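Thread: "does anyone have the structure for this chain?"

Original post by V.I.:
We have the sequence but no experimental structure in hand. Need at least a predicted one for the grant figures.
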Amino acid sequence: MESLELDDVDLRLLDLLQTDASLSNQELAQRALTSPPTCLRRVKRLRDAGLIEAQVALLSVDRLAPVLGHGLTAIVEITLDRQGAEWLEAFEARVTQDAAVQQCYRVSPGPDFVLVVHARDMPDYLALVQRLFTSEANVRNVKAFFSVKRSKFGARVPMPQRPPPAAAPG
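Reply from O.Q.:
Generated one for you, tokens below.
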């Protein structure tokens, strides 16, 4: 994979798209201080380079709760019995395929994985535990923490703050 140079326009585009990916190309170009054709070309380049993985809608769990139920969000620590690369990769591949697993992190030190999972209710969570952890012979320890309130949720990557260009002497 070749190295990709990012200039101030690229960084502004990435920052703006993290805030609101639904902006029209015209609006995005205006806010990024560039022309619409340049904006379109740059965003395509950033997408093709894999810097923009996906554009998604973030749903309000609080507003959906009356319709769908509150559900359970759990942060789950997993320690495997065997930590060889093939065991870690096999577990990771298995859990990341499950729709209930929203996030999966391989961590160190401490447990081998930290997962963020979502379940409809406690019986649904129990089914998830059976499906992903209990039936897996290599799982040594599972420790779950249940969220009682979501105070912040985001996926924003902080962009470097560069000072604005100096004004030309007048």
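V.I.: this helps a lot. The chain has a mean pLDDT of 90.
O.Q.: and DSSP finds six helices and four strands in the chain.
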